[in-house]
Every structure is written in C-alpha cells, then in structure tokens.
Design a protein that fits this description.
98 residues, mainly alpha, 4% strand
Length: 98
C-alpha cells in the first residue's frame, strides 16, 4: 500500500477477516472503488476550514434503547452457523491470555 492506495492484497486481507468470499473480479473492483474513495477524502483535507465551526446534528442525541426483556434465544445450530471454529455447542476462539 503506497500513499493510501488500496491494492488487491489489502482487500483480500480485509475480505478474509470479514469472511467474504470475493472472486478476482470483485477483488479488483473493490480495490479500485476503495482507492477512489480514499483519493476523494484526501482531496477534502486540502480545503481551508479555518474559522468554520464544526457541524452538529439537529436531531437530539438521545440513545433510545429497547426495553431489556427476555425473548426466545436462537437455536444453537443457527447461532453457531457462521462460526469459523467450534467445539460441539461452543465457539472456539484463540487463547488471548497465553
């Protein structure tokens, strides 16, 4: 990756982390699209914002949460359906306390 450019290796790595199965055509397109986005945002940094007040939303910033009520849990097979590794009815995760 040079000067913020996104190459196919970076996209391939992120796709692997996100567990996305992208073919070569999609990898190429994603690298191109992400590169264009980064280029666009880098141009925004060239703008003179001296004296410009930060904007805020006019909406109230209230974190409305749903009521914490018990519900029907997912079936185990569905909850573990996308698990990359499992041990019976449990997720298997790397040891982080080594």
């Amino acid at each position: 990756m040079v000067d913020g450019a996104i190459d196919e290796n970076v996209v391939r790595h992120v796709a692997k982390l996100a567990r996305l199965d992208l073919d070569e055509a999609r990898l190429t397109r994603a690298a191109t699209d992400l590169g264009r986005m980064i280029e666009h945002f880098s141009k925004l940094s060239e703008l003179d914002t001296e004296g410009v007040e930060p904007t805020v939303t006019r909406l109230a910033a209230v974190g409305e949460l749903r009521a914490d009520e018990p519900g029907t849990p997912l079936p185990t097979a569905e909850a573990l359906g996308n698990a990359p590794d499992r041990d019976g009815d449990f997720f298997r995760v790397p040891n982080v306390f080594g």
